[in-house]
Amino acid sequence: MRPTQNKKTQRFRHLYVTLPDLRRARDEPRLFSLIMYHMRALHRWLVTASAWLVLGHALMAHPGTDVAIIDLSTLISSSPGSAELRLRRATCYIEHQRWSEAAADIDHAARLSPDHPDLALARAEYFLASNEPLESIKALTTHLVSHPADPAARILRARARARSGDLVGAQSDFQLALRHLPEPKPEIWLEANALITDSVSALADLETGLTRLGPVPALEERALKLELQLGRTESALQRLTRLATQAERPETYHRRRGDILVQANRLPEARRAYAEALAAIDRLPDWLRQSEPTQQLIVQLTPLATSTL
Fold first, then answer.
1. Most Cβ neighbours (<10 Å): which of 16, 139, 186, 221?
2. Are 213 and 219 in contact, with CB atoms under 8 Å apart?
3. pTM (2 d.p.)
4. What angle (nearest 5°) sits at the alpha carbon of residue 98, between those of residues 97 and 104?
């Protein structure tokens, strides 16, 4: 049934084109022209919508920096003398691997403000991203002469040195950067730790990080892996016990203790660890205990806690 032609629907009369309309259009040229007009309008709308969809998919690759480039370009148009804006846009271009545009912005910023504190970092980031680590090191070394306590420059030069094969120099720069950072991010600590080839030294470094940063899960996991590689089973078990005590969901840590104890042929202790995992699950709220992943864990743990293995 066709909508009633009140004042509101009259404005949208063209949307209600039915089969009888098309049949009548053969004998009514004006109606046919009207229908064709709106069909062409619909076609244009669909073409435009498709174009926006294609653009949207392209923007999804770098949604944040795409918007940033547009915004920064607008700001640069109104403030063409800002070296800061040029360097920010260069960073976005680097992320997109738009090398010529990034280099142009950096060079323009250098002409506007040759002593800008971020100019050397932008050049170094450009060289490192474009796989020229030696040029990156050169730019940062010059910068660090006058800014020796700049942790961002130290981290960037550490990455460039690691890329060029200078692991000793990279470790030195990372350590100096971590020393100057009041609250270093765990991922930076792990990045630096990954360059330490000796497992004992790497483990000691992680313990230093845990003392300084607190019980960061990523550092704990890396330390646990090293302890097992070094055959320090007791230390690994003690770490898992401590993590279980601190965790809201300790059952997975108890399960891992059990697995390690099985590998060490300490079967009675393994059964106790699996039983502790089941006890931890029993203390969960009903909705969580009855979830599918938890039920699957119960099915796995039950025979391990009761069998003779």
1. 139
2. yes
3. 0.72
4. 130
